[in-house]
Specification:
Blueprint: H1 15-47
């Protein structure tokens, strides 16, 4: 009359821990992707030679 264990010894079912682990991994991936987009956008603009408005010459459309 001995029932076999539902899972192996030492193995614990922790759905909350598993969910938090997945959430942590997804959050890190999103943060890295956003940082990559920001860095890519910054260096892409710098490579195109964009200048601040203060250093640009007036266009002469107003007098």
């Amino acid at each position: 009359m001995h029932e076999p264990p539902s899972h192996r010894r030492g193995q614990h079912r922790d759905p909350v821990g598993a969910f938090l682990g997945v959430l942590w991994a997804v959050g890190n991936a999103v943060a890295i992707a956003l940082l990559g987009v920001i860095v890519h956008d910054h260096f892409d603009t710098a490579r195109l030679g964009a200048h601040p408005a203060a250093s640009s010459a007036p266009d002469g459309t107003y007098a």
